[in-house]
Amino acid sequence: WHNAALLYGDAERPAETGARAAPGAAEQRPACACSQKPCGCQKADVNYAFLHSTDLLPACNGEITTMSFLQDVVDILLQYVVRSFDRSTKVIDFHYPNELLQEYNWELADQPQTLEEILLNCRTTLKYAIKTGHPRYFNQLSTGLDMVGLAADWLTSAANTNMFTYEIAPVFVLLEYVTLRKMREMVGWPGGCGDGIFSPGGAISNMYAMLIARFKMFPEVKEKGMAAIPRLVAFTSEHSHFSVKKGAAALGIGTDSVILIRCDERGKMIPSDLERRILEAKQKGFVPFLVSATAGTTVYGAFDPLIAIADICKKYKIWMHVDGAWGGGLLMSRKHKWKLNGVERANSVTWNPHKMMGVPLQCSALLVREEGLMQSCNQMHASYLFQQDKHYDLSYDTGDKALQCGRHVDVFKLWLMWRAKGTTGFEAQIDKCLELAEYLYNKIKNRDGYEMVFDGKPQHTNVCFWYIPPSLRSMEDNEERMSRLMKVAPVIKARMMEYGTTMVSYQPLGDKVNFFRMVISNPAATHQDIDFLIDEIERLGQDL
Amino acid sequence: WHNAALLYGDAERPAETGARAAPGAAEQRPACACSQKPCGCQKADVNYAFLHSTDLLPACNGEITTMSFLQDVVDILLQYVVRSFDRSTKVIDFHYPNELLQEYNWELADQPQTLEEILLNCRTTLKYAIKTGHPRYFNQLSTGLDMVGLAADWLTSAANTNMFTYEIAPVFVLLEYVTLRKMREMVGWPGGCGDGIFSPGGAISNMYAMLIARFKMFPEVKEKGMAAIPRLVAFTSEHSHFSVKKGAAALGIGTDSVILIRCDERGKMIPSDLERRILEAKQKGFVPFLVSATAGTTVYGAFDPLIAIADICKKYKIWMHVDGAWGGGLLMSRKHKWKLNGVERANSVTWNPHKMMGVPLQCSALLVREEGLMQSCNQMHASYLFQQDKHYDLSYDTGDKALQCGRHVDVFKLWLMWRAKGTTGFEAQIDKCLELAEYLYNKIKNRDGYEMVFDGKPQHTNVCFWYIPPSLRSMEDNEERMSRLMKVAPVIKARMMEYGTTMVSYQPLGDKVNFFRMVISNPAATHQDIDFLIDEIERLGQDL
Questions:
Q1: SS3 letters for A32-82?
Q2: B280-318 pLDDT per residue, tens
Q3: Reported pTM
Q4: ipTM (interface predicted TM)
Q5: Which of residues 238-297 of A touch B (CB under 8 A)?
Q6: Could you give the CA distance from residue A373 to residue A376 in angstroms, rounded to a whole number?
Q7: Do A360 and B160 touch (CB under 8 A)?
Q8: Pick from A2, A150, A223: which is nearest to B157 by CB?
């Protein structure tokens, strides 16, 4: 049966499936007598060494070859998927860039390769890939590999369309409508009212928020540019994501006009400092137009105090954006959603289902409370796309809301996963990840050789800590210790990658030298994987 | 054999594959005796009606269910793929938005659905999808469904990673490097030198060009914003893509600062008008910083005279961008690449392989001649991602070049298709599409009932024409005729969609009322499909 191929690379495949016919046999053989057209009866005879992409559909009689080829690709992928969840496999087979460039010929040529070579390219690419679904891959906020999400992404690829009009993406446009409304309900906007879009990532979603906030206050900026309006300033915490500054640079506002508000020791924005800086900016004649609060900071996983921030935004009539790219997922959990209390008062919210909800990359939503604003802000009325004399309800041609013209279908994988899990399924998955983070925190908070970067139970799944090798444990807390400690995490991380056993991120932050930032968003992870991580850090770091 | 499932929806599937076991059987059954672990021997027994996504990996013993489920999804997709190329199937099974909303329950709920329902969701989604790979789908610049591209996109989904660092996307980062260098070679930059990125679509690529051009002239804009620099103006033709204006609005430059240069009757920018408008702007004290020339306009498929434009840009020291989103593919053709002569003098080039080269959506490249500029313009040095003390060559951490933080892997499908076709394969495919466009042009230019929107052989695959129904053929060319002609294309298009037989776009442009814009980018299309389109237009339009 065909799944035998799952367990073997082509080279190792049992002989019975390897029977191969003469060159070009797929074309020359007389038509099969079976009643199915196209039929796949003769798959075993397809000899890829003599076939090229021109033998695939739309080639005449290309069905057999196409189905065999795609099936063999899928077999390679299923093998990879199964191995991704297998703890006995490496997370990564690490090679330095120059090694990887030399180990295989990746170059593009004038002449075609055979389908046999194409299958080899696929296997080689996966050989060196990071298994981001591996239960011991903790390196990024987006981890895991959801099977329904994967299926949905495969369907999206086969449908190969574009979000700009209902005309060419009827189902996906409706699903975007349904899904965004549901997400707005979860945010707490009455009846899910409002607007939104799926954008290519949280940075772009945050940039959209800034763009729309500016337009709301000064609609003339669209035509006249920044020259026609006062100098704007935006506020965000010192722990916020760099995309707020990146957006300000792009939008012509400038990074100097992003004022970083101080955080408490847990990484939460201090509202009194926000108000002070707003007043200061106003005194200088600047116009505060946006506060970007963070619900789940990148490193600490901190939630800014949204209610206090909402009060200040209301008082000074400033657009309140909540960057919930990382923390938004907690809205699915009855146990944890209080951490976002106040989000319902935001004017806009970024929420990336590709992070805490485990949706395949990428899937980021920007939600906007006021309907129609995105459209007014971004529309250019291209008459070749958004014809006004079409025969259906034009409100479903949502493409002109976007900065993009063509837009990838990102909604289907989220929608299908939501159908498959229900809200309660996402909740269970998220609660489990938070429980694991608490387990890790409890395990190391008093353990020899560990120091927590901040006190207290994590609010999200971020657990930030230093591993202190034995040689540093009795040292005084001075500069030498700091400079040695700074080098510990990078060395352990490099060793993790070379062994390929696990991956976790590290970084410095402010005056704190390199520390590990553990995050858990993969429902495949278990207590044993957390135990493994700690053992591995100690194994790899004890000699430092 | 499993491919039997290809030809049948679940309901119609022959009885022998439909044998189903008791609830939860997949878990309760004793382990199979075969030597393969995990094995798929018992696939036929999986009863999806009693299984949920929680039974899939990473569930304990989830392999059998996972492989069966993904295999069944793939069977549904393969069926869709084969049908996409079958001319006896509809391009679209059109339903109005309110019908589609009522015909199926698309809502998201608290409770999970079974895997049986998930498979049904997949089938239903595809039932209402547009077959963008159908040989008679001519509606957009991106059409077709490439089998190697599809395979590559499936692999990309399974790898589920992010382009920001080499650490988590080693192969894909290298392939981006190799592929962008090759594209720059095709543009004509010596040795493929320069820089670039894959971005989420041509509009964003064009916005990048504008962003980088502004930064090159006034690097202080990154920190200080537009307030600190003189009033900028950009130039592009009146036939250029709306994304130039959209970008200017977003970047705080303002749409009024995008000066539209007149075109000749073929839709090409008139260089003397460009120079005149540059001088005029300078006289007003504005600073010209960008000319965006178009290589393949959206509607006419016109190529701006790049050499003359390059001369003007050089003379006035203005950044020359070429928007080759649509026309860039012609660089792969020895016969047609002369149309882009002068592109090698551009400072930046947008080129969307997802259009003329048939790569699945989305795949858009921005190429920049000066290396390092993208990085300086966009980098924010986020220390949690771009640690400076990593153990490998940091020049491969390319993520800080981008406006995005997370970035989808768009390169693999292009790379794999290029390996499979070779440059010569892309050339053959593109030459064929252009030949088909010429065939269409020759067929209708003197045919009763057709008027060409502009004279002469198309330069790209765009063929723009009016169909004149018999009732209008003897009318004088007056306002009444115009107002009746305006309604012809929309009605024919609506009928096409309701019959589902073919799709082609129409639009007004300037003083020209609605005309058809035929484009061909699908290598599946043949002369017979062109003949069919013409017959269909006449069949659906003769009574108007």
A1: CCCCCCCCCCCHHHCCHHHCCHHHCCCCCCCHHHHHHHHHHHHHHHHHHHH
A2: 999 999 999 999 999 999 999 999 999 999 999 999 999
A3: 0.93
A4: 0.93
A5: 241-243, 245-257
A6: 5
A7: yes
A8: A150
